[in-house]
Amino acid sequence: METPPCRDTPPRRFFETCRRYFGDDPPKGDFPVQKKSPKLCGSNYPLSIAFIVVNEFCERFSYYGMRAVLTLYFISFFHWDENLSTAVYHAFSALCYFTPVIGAIMADSWLGKYKTIIYLSIVYVVGHLIKSVGAIPSLGNQVVHVVLSMVGLFLIALGTGGIKPCVSAFGGDQFEEEHTSERSKFFSVFYLSINAGSLISTFVTPVLRGDVKCFGEDCYALAFGVPAALMVLALVVFIAGSGLYRKMPPQGNVLLEVCKCIGFAIKNRLKNRSHHIPKRDHWLDWASEKYSKQLIGEVKMVTRVLFLFIPLPMFWALFDQQGSRWTLQATKMNADFGIYVLQPDQMQFLNPLLILVFIPIFDLGLYPLISMCKFNFTPIKKMATGMILAGMAFGLAAIVEVKINETDMPQLVPKESLIQVLNLAKNPVQVTIEDQDLFQQPVEAFQDPAEYSNLILNGEQQNLHFILQHQGLSLTFNYTVKEKSVYSLIVFEAEGSLSSRLITDLKAKPENGLAAVRFINGLSQDANLTIDSKQFVAVPKNYGVSEYLLLERDKYSNGKCITEMGEFTLDLGLLDFGASYTVVVTNVSGDAVQTWKSEDIKANSVHMAWQLPQYLLISAGEVMFSITGLAFSYSQSPASMKSVLQAGWLLTVAVGNTFVLVVAQAAPMAQVWFGAFSRANALKRALGGASGCLCSGDTASLPSPRLLHGVLAVCTSFFPARALAGNFSQEIYSPKVILWAKSPGRCTPVRADL
């Protein structure tokens, strides 16, 4: 290791000199700023990168673990609807990718990368702690929880976003210039550590949320607390390697200089619009009166790369919905894999798992094979292919959603309601409803209706006559029916005759894959029912009806029914994902009560495994798009602007999330969110409008929110088609601008999302 010039220094300047030497302060003059770090096992890899890789693993575990359960946290803990939950999720994601600009400015202009990472990591930790405290149910009311959670999310976004453009660049700074091959391999390991952290966290934190109970419900405090602990560990590990780092000094306010240069060039060009003034080769050359040729040349490189970034937000608009819409889709599916039941938010672990599998396959297999076929698979074409794969993934997701919608309740419309008849009498009953052409055949005893029937009303509500005919008896009952409601008509025997009761049913499937169950007590005594030793409900006698209970999907065979006659066992059987049940306690037999179960809303029948193809495509698209693009942005950035240009890359993620947020909130959200191909005419409208107003941000023409994902898929595919066809500006492909022509053909990852 090089010896610092601290010896023979006057004592009063000793500590200041050493501190400046090791990079804590910007050096002055010709003062040396770099030192050689010890190597790993005699290789050319500096020991300091081990601390950076471990830090990144822990930080990514922290971020992705917290984000994996965030959407369901909004829905289950705050009781927000899907649309608000999705909007806040993408607002948070967008903020995480807008804040890299702040981190880049701090690193390049003020503190340097090392101090920026330290300070913003502390902010990051504080945000996690506040978020965890806000998830404790007993702490205050709903307002307190929301405020704490939003403050925590803001600090997390500031912390994670601020360090994004710094960590990978700081890792690259640890290598000497002659070790370019080792630096490229480091970026591969760096990317793998990111996905390893993401893989483990997206599998573990949903388990902490769903399988561990605290305060009588899902343990979100633990699910957020573990990522907080990992972020503390990340900070400790990073600080532990402090003495080994090469700490490059800040390069000055580069971003401000770039903006000033661009602004001056535009202003100067507008002032000199006369035909008598000679034209210049490039519009940025109009800044030459004030700025150096070197700066103008570097800004040209940056603007050319940024021009290439224009279509990239469309990819992220699709990609980041894995944590919102795809997770919500998973809550409507069957998650039973036989030996294990997945939590809906655990499906996200497929993406990092597939990334870890695809990187070596693509690097060592696919790309060399394509090269052997004499096809020039340039970085631009790789990115374009990745965007197309993302569009295809959402096409498959739309098809899956169509199948899911088939098990949903029918859409409720004005002046209509839904009704079914549950005949609890011993014999068939003929049911006639005034002015309605329903139930042509008698309703059999204890027959589970196949589906609900439509009631047509003449207003918002209507008083209807229900005529029941049973063994020569004809009885009329009057009930008031409201529009957009779902009812069950309970028919039962009472005092040697017939009686009935109109009860209100659920309008939609239970959220998050839960099962809903209510009880009708056919006994002559009040019953107290205990389900799984946790859920308790009291049901009045003589066909009294309980409220709905929401239960995890499981077999419930050890329930208890307590009446005046004693305690009896209650076997409910399997309560499946997303189903709604009416359980009728009919009589007592021995030490158990006899029950009859009606499935009012059908269980989720589409298996979660059908999401695998869309995850395969989106992950393959990420490998081609994200890794290639990140390496490209790093290679094209001048030495003084690496953090700034990487922040620009991350800004495309923010814009993509903002696009989803704006479109989702501007469109009417009354229908199911994404079934772009659910109807042929819907697909036609999506294809017809994709390249026009929809891409320009005009959401007024959206035919329905179901088309959101189809439209995004079409928009995403529009740009790659041009890239593959070679219609981009030839200036972008120029070897003087794009240095990939001199780079190895293999994909070199630089920085994950990440």
UniProtKB/TrEMBL annotation:
Principal localisation: membrane
Keywords (A to Z) from UniProt: Membrane, Peptide transport, Protein transport, Symport, Transmembrane, Transmembrane helix, Transport
InterPro entries in alphabetical order: MFS_trans_sf, POT_fam, PTR2_symporter_CS, SLC15A2
Gene3D superfamilies, sorted: MFS general substrate transporter like domains
Transmembrane as UniProt keyword: yes
Cellular compartments annotated: Membrane
GO cellular component: membrane
GO biological process: protein transport
The keyword Transmembrane belongs to this UniProt entry's keyword annotation: yes
Sections of the chain in a coiled coil: none
GO molecular function, one term: symporter activity
Stored Pfam families: PTR2
Membrane topology: Multi-pass membrane protein
Membrane-spanning ranges: 61-80, 86-105, 117-137, 143-167, 188-208, 220-245, 301-319, 349-370, 382-400, 615-635, 647-667
Family per similarity comment: Belongs to the major facilitator superfamily. Proton-dependent oligopeptide transporter (POT/PTR) (TC 2.A.17) family.
Annotated protein name in UniProt: Solute carrier family 15 member 2
Origin species: Anas zonorhyncha
